[in-house]
Write a structure and sequence with these properties.
Layout lengths: L29 H22 L2 H24 L3 H8 L2 H15 L6 H31 L6 H30 L2
Length: 180
């Protein structure tokens, strides 16, 4: 079965069958969660298009486009919902990225709150972005014979886009918050 080569990072939190099959099985409500996430990314995409300059938001627009396509496939096919759930672990770090932006806008860079958030942001970045994306890439590679070629191509392109983007953002965060 698909997914038997490795253990899901969310095995104990979600659904035991998920660690065995990220393609065809998912916990109750998971399909709805992924569908709502597609809606969020679509809304945020349109909001950025309407309210931000392209040179300020092109990276996020690109990111959102990749997520919308990949999650959209999972929603439409009712397949790979488990894989999309693993991908949503990345968004846990978004809490601290957004709090960082709020603190920057409030000019609270030189506060204990900002410093603490910077440390938590980096820690959650490594765990929920870098490690999750690495795990997803590994899973995709190990399960390539069980994934249809078109889906494998979309997944591979998605990971090839998201991983470098996240490494670059990690470098920017390190440089900005720790190596000024």
């Amino acid at each position: 079965t698909t997914g038997t080569h490795s253990t899901s990072p969310c095995r104990f939190c979600l659904h035991p069958g998920l660690s065995e099959d990220l393609v065809g099985t998912h916990p109750p409500g998971a399909h709805c969660l992924v569908a709502v996430s597609v809606g969020y990314f679509l809304e945020d995409f349109v909001d950025m298009l309407c309210n931000q300059k392209l040179h300020q938001s092109w990276e996020l627009l690109f990111h959102h486009s990749v997520v919308i396509v990949c999650f959209g496939i999972a929603v439409l096919l009712h397949q790979y919902v488990g894989f999309a759930l693993v991908a949503l672990l990345v968004e846990i770090n978004s809490i601290f990225l957004h709090l960082r932006q709020i603190l920057l806008m409030a000019n609270l860079v030189h506060t204990t709150c900002y410093r603490l958030n910077s440390i938590i942001n980096l820690g959650t970045y490594v765990v929920f972005r870098i490690a999750t994306l690495a795990w997803m890439t590994r899973w995709l590679f190990l399960n390539r014979e069980n994934v249809p070629p078109a889906t494998y191509a979309v997944g591979t392109v998605g990971m090839a886009i998201m991983t470098p983007m996240n490494i670059i953002l990690f470098y920017r965060l390190l440089r900005s918050d720790f190596f000024k």
